[in-house]
Amino acid sequence: MLDHAEVKFACVQDQEQVDKILGVQDKLHTIQMVFYDEPRGLRDYDHSRLQAIDEVISQGEGMLFSDPAAVNRLEAEIRSGKGSDLSVMLYTSGTTGRSKGVMLTAGGCINAAKDTVAFDRITENDQVIAYLPLAWVGDHYLNYAQALVAGFTINCPESPDTAVDDRREVGTTFAFAPPRVYEAMLTRIMIRMEDAGWLKRKMFHYYLGVAKQWGEKILNGESVPALARLNYKLGELLVYGPLKNVLGFTTVRIAYTAGEAIGPELFGFYRSIGINMKQLYGQTEAFLYVTCQADGKVRTDCVGPATPNVEIKIDENGEVLYKSPGQFVGYFKEPEKTAETMTEDGFVRTGDAGFFEKDGQLRIIDRAKDVGKLVSGALYAPKYIENKLKFFPNIREVVAFGQDKEFITCFINIDLTAVGNWAERNNVSYGSYQELAGHSQVYEIIAGHVAEVNRQLSEEPLMARSQIHRFLILHKELDADDGELTRTQKVRRGFIADRYAPLVTALYDGSTLADISTEVSFEDGRKGVISARVKVMDAKTFPVPATKSQAA
Predict the structure, then answer these.
(1) Which has more pLDDT, 495 or 551?
(2) Cα 23 to Cα 40, 51, 53, 421, 483, distances in angstroms
(3) Best CATH choice for the domain 83-369 from the list 3.30.420.40, 3.40.50.12780, 3.30.70.260, 3.20.20.70
């Protein structure tokens, strides 16, 4: 990306980041200088193309103080700026191929932010916390564009590990995060409850049941029986209030999730305890928002109608197309890719398959190229299945397979924190992720989760024939450094299928065991190989209800 973007200057944090640049400098043809913030460990480095950022700042200040003409030149440069100028170039996640540089204009970014600031009534009195990945369009949208328009306060956490505590301390009112963040928070909560006394656990799960039945209806302003409303208020006092305080959501007025599809169960959980969580559907090419949900009109299974001043239509093949105020001007140095993405009438192809519900809300099924069919003709929507499994705290990542196959199978990554906590409480000893992942009792737990998802799928007419028939627990965690995930933590399904081809074969040929050796990258840059014998298990499936045509 650095070379493709023709980067001349790189500003990095510390020695570790400097080493990353120097480690690939033979592949970088345009870098002239690297500026660093923390000097520790860099004293003996060659500084011919290396300089402390403090020195650069001092030099700039010296020029402005000593040369009045420099001030005039700077002010003239600022005045020459136009809304049509490029503001930022953000790279796509690269889920389906090589990342592309998305060019966005200053005026487009501000216009897009104006619409959503007005939509959600965001003001200078709001508080946000800046912890999102710098490479993600969500960070640029929230912490730059919306902040410039609304004037709210941006708070920087002490570290990623303290984000929850910092959110509680500053009283965040507007929260924004990808599903993985919300998944991690729920996992921590469930782990803590497993360690609580039996009375607390019983009360917790009882009131979660109450919340599941009535919480969203109360949040949406729907009619709820007085006794149920009273019981929910008691739950707010005993469970939901303290829970929101632990999560740092007590003062949150609006919470958005975006970046990839969120599981309905996970989304419903947060809304049921009184958090006004909403979904938006967006893309880097749109400068984020394509749809958003209005308060009181939030649906778990949809992503809302078009954002104000955004136009959406569905192509003949089911692909979602849009026009938006923040729309990109093209991909950097890739006019052919830009032409492929744009229609003749100026709409952007999203690559996602979806349709509008009767109330005007858009429902996204999956990536258009990922949605397919089994040999039987049953629908194959991998992301939908993966998200249902990821609701369980014990499951961190899932990769589903099934295109043109007899049935659906999946790889599963366990959540080491959640399953490790279970192992500790049950005196199960293990020495590594690989050992825990292959444990027979862990397989039994995961098998129970898969069976529950299959039960849920069996009750959905569209997905009843798309139940999971076989699964395995991967011997290693999927990792962006190994190319298995994008930097925004999206699964690269095609790459994984090729990398673990022997395991995919075992899922479909009836094998109960499969041998695999996988090259991995360690944090210090070294390479290694992990070898394992992976167990393959059959999943419990449920009868498919007869359709009207079948019954006839």
Answers:
(1) 495
(2) 18, 17, 20, 38, 18
(3) 3.40.50.12780
